[in-house]
Amino acid sequence: MKFKEISSIVGHIPFISKENGQFLYDLIIKEKITNILELGIAHGTATCYMAAALQEQGEGKITAVDLIEVKDQFKPSAEEQLAKTGFADIATVKRMQTGYTWFLHDQIVKNTKDDICHEEYDLVIIDGPKNWTIDGAAFFFADKLLKNNGWIIFDDYNWTYSQASDRRDATDGITHRSLSKAEQETPHIKAVFELLVKQHPHYGNLIVLEEHDWVLAQKTMSADKTYNIVNQTTTKDMLGKGLKKIYRKLKTLRK
Ligand SMILES: C[S@@+](CC[C@H](N)C(=O)[O-])C[C@H]1O[C@@H](n2cnc3c(N)ncnc32)[C@H](O)[C@@H]1O
Fold first, then answer.
1. What is the pLDDT of residues 19-44, one digit of tens each?
2. Which residue's CA is minimally distant from atom 6 of ligand 1?
3. Pocket residues for ligand 1 (CB within 6 Å)?
4. What is the spatial distance between Cα 94 and Cα 74, in angstroms, rounded to a whole number?
5. Which of 13, 47, 94, 100, when mutated, tests ligand 1's pocket best, judged by the most ligand atoms within 8 Å of its CB?
6. pLDDT in tens, 149-201
7. Which CATH number goes with the domain that contains 23?
8. CA atoms of 88 and 50, how far apart (whole Å)
9. CB burial string 10-49: b at 16+ within 10 A, e below
10. Cα–Cα distance between 229 and 252 in angstroms, integer?
11. Into how many domains does the chain fold?
């Protein structure tokens, strides 16, 4: 399905913007990504954008993981959106009792033979609680399952508990006031990216898409590191020239 068509069906449903939806759609097609793991799905809007790209390229599947307890909280649910768009055969939703870190445990068990964990995914998207402990662990677990040259993407690079305190007292089961001031004010995903992903020997291409609050890292298994901050000034840029610029940059970085 073309981007325009999927965007006309799900574009008004949170939480991913059309610009980031287009970025994901194009990334999948340009990088020929076929096996995707999405951690944190809410209404499944990003799942639908990615499934549309996989259908367009003629192959690929998505495993999309969230909590059992939120199934009826997000309306429409991911399952409903996938049924509506006809992508239920491309994306499988897995609902866990305690969260995606235990899903990753189960995958590592399933993929381990003779003390070696078989890597299976080309792209892992981490878009859940935005929490140092959960998402830091999820990164190390996901790394065991991510193929060489595969990509990992984090949303909410700059998000903090303190900024969310205007709207609510707790985020994904974590009560804000139970955290220290530093824990409330530090962007946890930024900490995961800067302190864990950037220093990890497997990751060579590190890209911050600043205005879109996303960070990407490519598993290159090389000691060479490049770190790029890509500024997008306007949405138009992101959809047109800017997007091309990012892909040109990604291509150069891979050489
Ligand atoms: C921002 S939403 C995801 C949005 C989605 N990726 C999109 O762009 O359309 C965050 C989701 O993470 C889920 N979540 C939070 N903590 C989780 C955990 N420990 N395990 C699994 N899912 C979790 C929430 O239930 C919520 O659905």
1. 999 999 999 999 999 999 999 999 99
2. 41
3. 15-16, 40-43, 45-46, 65-67, 70, 99-100, 127-129, 134, 172
4. 15
5. 100
6. 999 999 999 999 999 999 999 999 999 999 999 999 999 999 999 999 999 99
7. 3.40.50.150
8. 12
9. bbebeebebbbbbbbbbbbeebebbbbbbbbbbbbbbbbb
10. 14
11. 1
Sequence-distant (6+) residues with CB within 8 A of 5 are: 52
Alpha helices in the chain (DSSP H): 3-10, 18-31, 45-57, 78-85, 100-111, 132-145, 161-164, 181-185, 188-191, 235-239, 241-254
Residue with tokens 């955290």: 179
Residue 194 in tokens: 């800067």
What letter represents residue 238's amino acid?
Answer: M
- CA separation for the pair 27, 124 (Å, rounded): 12
CA distance 234 to 249: 18
Q: Which domain holds residue 27?
A: 3-254
* Residue 176: DSSP 8-state: G
